[in-house]
């Protein structure tokens, strides 16, 4: 038979049992969280790879990437050759107060210059200070983890498939 | 269930001239989960009129859709209902894929279903925690958040996000799953199942909780249908409608989706629907994980052109989101951006019925009724 107050007692029993268990609280500043490699914490820039092509800045849904560059002309590599011009990056900044952390910039970058890192401790007191310039973005590169191994059911990367085929045919990949 | 006594204060109290009072709940009020404003007209403690005033958080999502390409739209679609981000993305890509006539790889289909069900559990756990708070029970939310953390961890491992996953792409998913992830999903599901049992013990039979919710804010099935109410709220009134079973998308037709319904239509029924749906979704997620593990190796997405243009035409894709039916009406004129992308969000329709439920109720019950409508303000205001 069900008596009045049984529900409350069942609830209190749960609380009592929880009291005897270890707390799930994480001691954050002392113990740092273990974040997965795909975690979208902040965007790092490998500026050596950047060609200032502006694809990221244009594809960003809220235009929070600022790129400034100028063209430099290099003398011809061989006698009588053509002069080469290349882009030199002057400024690369991401305004993290606008950033929506969607990762489109990283996806569209054709030269692998942008990466996600799980780093997250970059809170500021002033919103303007959330615009980070290329030196800060470059420093974050050191925190970029290697991508995780993929599920056995995943399609093999093109490079692996090519190498295996080459090995089977007995030619260098 | 509710009994009422009229206590006359001294003689002649009945003849006292009374005046209605207008009381604003919100836009900044803890009971509104955000910036929903209710203008109540009160006759003493009794509500005579309610007017929900929406739009404080209007971000013009539909208009922004028109000037964003299909990948950028996912960013925005993620955010109108921030508790069902994955389900929202899903609706957009389903609509676009239908117009493009893309067949999504089978691995992507099952992964999408798995993630959608995990997302549903995350959403429901949030409300299972926050609703008791509104009624004065603080404990359940700690249990709910503990369980949410377990799921968010596996979601973050696969997608990189804890809230806005950005994992869907037109043609499949952004990345394949990490190695060993499916086992961790199974472990998390088992953990959450045990944890949800605790939440159930904490609150399901609680007499105080029953006193606050049973028979309060009764929504009739016919009224729910008239207002276009959907999701767990409609099912708590006996409207047996679930798109996963009635108009299956992805591969839901291969699964047996049990639809949780109640007939009472009161706050308690709505809460219990949510609670039972968590169990159902956990089972579905487990089935999806098993099916995924048994699939032969294959791609997770099909290659789509960089400059994705959707052919001229229109389509309506609706999905069973955690909070109800979420629909996207996509009209394309063959460009990189939709000409129009109409958003039918669950909370917007669901909240319309709130005045009907509150009229004649007491102010204290207003909180119980509003909380049981399980809405996200961003989903109302779009």
From TrEMBL, chain B:
Record Pfam families: Complex1_49kDa (PF00346)
Enzyme class: translocase
InterPro entries: NADH_Q_OxRdtase_suD, NADH_UbQ_OxRdtase_49kDa_CS, NDH1_su_D/H, NiFe-Hase_large
Subcellular location(s) of the protein: Cell membrane
GO cellular component: plasma membrane
Keyword set, alphabetical order: Cell membrane, Membrane, NAD, Quinone, Translocase, Transport
Entry GO MF terms: NAD binding; NADH dehydrogenase (quinone) (non-electrogenic) activity; quinone binding
Topology within the bilayer: Peripheral membrane protein
Annotated NADH-quinone oxidoreductase subunit D domain residues: 135-306
Residues spanning the membrane: none
Reactions the enzyme catalyzes: a quinone + NADH + 5 H(+)(in) = a quinol + NAD(+) + 4 H(+)(out)
Domain of life, per lineage: Bacteria
EC number: 7.1.1.-
UniProt KW Iron keyword: no
Family: Belongs to the complex I 49 kDa subunit family.
UniProt subunit comment: NDH-1 is composed of 14 different subunits. Subunits NuoB, C, D, E, F, and G constitute the peripheral sector of the complex.
Described function: NDH-1 shuttles electrons from NADH, via FMN and iron-sulfur (Fe-S) centers, to quinones in the respiratory chain. The immediate electron acceptor for the enzyme in this species is believed to be a menaquinone. Couples the redox reaction to proton translocation (for every two electrons transferred, four hydrogen ions are translocated across the cytoplasmic membrane), and thus conserves the redox energy in a proton gradient.
Name of the protein described by the UniProt record: NADH-quinone oxidoreductase subunit D
Gene designation per UniProt: nuoD
């Amino acid at each position: 038979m069900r008596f009045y107050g049984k529900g409350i007692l069942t609830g209190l029993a749960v609380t009592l049992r929880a009291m005897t268990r270890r707390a799930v609280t994480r001691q954050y500043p002392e113990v740092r969280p273990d974040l997965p490699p795909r975690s979208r914490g902040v965007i790092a820039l490998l500026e050596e790879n950047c060609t200032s092509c502006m694809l990221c800045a244009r594809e960003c849904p809220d235009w929070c990437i600022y790129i400034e560059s100028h063209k430099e002309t290099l003398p011809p590599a061989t006698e009588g050759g053509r002069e080469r011009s290349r882009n030199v990056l002057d400024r690369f900044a991401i305004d993290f107060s606008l950033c929506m952390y969607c990762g489109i910039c990283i996806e569209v970058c054709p030269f692998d210059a942008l990466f996600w890192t799980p780093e997250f401790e970059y809170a500021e007191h002033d919103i303007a200070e959330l615009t980070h310039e290329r030196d800060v973005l470059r420093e974050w590169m050191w925190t970029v983890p290697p991508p995780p191994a993929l599920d056995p059911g995943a399609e093999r990367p093109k490079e692996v498939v090519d190498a295996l085929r080459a090995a089977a045919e007995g030619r260098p990949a | 269930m509710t009994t009422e006594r009229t206590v006359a204060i001294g003689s002649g109290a009945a003849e006292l001239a009374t005046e209605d009072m207008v009381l604003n709940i919100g836009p900044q009020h803890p009971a509104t989960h955000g910036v929903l404003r209710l203008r109540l007209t009160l006759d003493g403690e009794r509500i005579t009129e309610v007017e929900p005033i929406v739009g404080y958080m209007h971000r013009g999502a539909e208009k922004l859709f028109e000037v964003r390409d299909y990948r950028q739209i996912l960013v925005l679609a993620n955010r109108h209902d921030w508790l069902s981000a994955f389900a929202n993305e899903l609706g957009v890509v389903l609509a676009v894929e239908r117009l493009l006539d893309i067949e999504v790889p089978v691995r992507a289909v099952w992964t999408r279903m798995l993630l959608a069900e995990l997302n549903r559990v995350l959403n429901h756990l949030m409300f299972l925690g926050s609703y008791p708070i509104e009624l004065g029970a603080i404990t359940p939310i700690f249990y709910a958040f503990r369980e949410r953390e377990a799921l968010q961890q596996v979601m973050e491992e696969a997608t990189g996000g804890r809230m806005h996953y950005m994992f869907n792409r037109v043609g499949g998913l952004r990345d394949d799953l990490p190695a060993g992830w499916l086992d961790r999903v199974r472990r998390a599901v088992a953990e959450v199942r045990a944890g949800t049992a605790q939440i159930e013990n904490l609150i399901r039979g609680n007499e105080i909780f029953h006193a606050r919710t049973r028979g309060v804010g009764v929504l009739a099935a016919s009224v729910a249908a008239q207002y276009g109410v959907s999701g767990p709220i409609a099912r708590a009134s006996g409207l047996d409608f679930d798109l996963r079973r009635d108009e299956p998308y992805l591969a839901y037709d291969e699964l047996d989706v049990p639809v949780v319904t109640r007939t009472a239509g009161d706050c308690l029924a709505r809460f219990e629907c949510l609670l039972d749906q968590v169990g159902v979704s956990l089972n579905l997620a487990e089935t999806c994980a098993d099916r995924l593990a048994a699939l032969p190796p294959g791609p997770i997405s099909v290659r789509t052109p960089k400059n994705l243009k959707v052919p001229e035409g229109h389509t309506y894709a609706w999905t069973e989101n955690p909070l109800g039916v979420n629909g996207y009406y996509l009209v394309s004129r063959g460009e990189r951006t939709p000409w129009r992308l109409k958003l039918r969000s669950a909370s917007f329709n669901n909240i319309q019925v709130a005045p009907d439920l509150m009229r004649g109720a007491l102010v204290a019950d207003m909180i119980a009724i509003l909380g049981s409508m399980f809405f996200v303000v961003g989903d109302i205001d779009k």
